[in-house]
Amino acid sequence: MKKESVAQLKTELCEDDVAEMRRLQNQYLKKEGLVFIIELRLKELRLKNLYTIKEIAGVLGCTASLVSRYENGSRMPRADYLVKLADFYDVSVDYLLGLTEDKERH
């Protein structure tokens, strides 16, 4: 096998492992109800502040489709996106995660 083929195969296997790990993580989080809280909070904040999904995608530097998946609960936002969203909306990450009802940052 060529060296490039082995490297490519390793990369593909790693990507498959990461995708499977994310799928299992999302499945667990949905079971625990965490994703439901996040999706509600993200959508509520966006609508309350009169932003479009496309505008939030611009803030995060991602696609509108990904933001939509966050809001419908089919994907869990990455940690860095949660921090960006908390900063943007001026709320705590704990609030976004449903760990507190207090929106204030401490």
UniProtKB/TrEMBL annotation:
Protein known as: XRE family transcriptional regulator
Organism, as annotated: Ligilactobacillus ruminis
Origin superkingdom: Bacteria
Record-linked SUPFAM superfamilies: lambda repressor-like DNA-binding domains
Record PROSITE patterns: HTH_CROC1 (PS50943)
Transmembrane segments: none
PANTHER family reported in the protein's UniProt record: HTH-TYPE TRANSCRIPTIONAL REGULATOR XRE (PTHR46558:SF11), TRACRIPTIONAL REGULATORY PROTEIN-RELATED-RELATED (PTHR46558)
GO molecular function: DNA binding
InterPro entries assigned: Cro/C1-type_HTH (IPR001387), Lambda_DNA-bd_dom_sf (IPR010982)
Domain HTH cro/C1-type span(s) in chain numbering: 42-96
CDD domains noted in UniProt: HTH_XRE
SMART domains according to UniProt: HTH_XRE
Pfam family, one: HTH_3
UniProt entry keywords in alphabetical sequence: DNA-binding
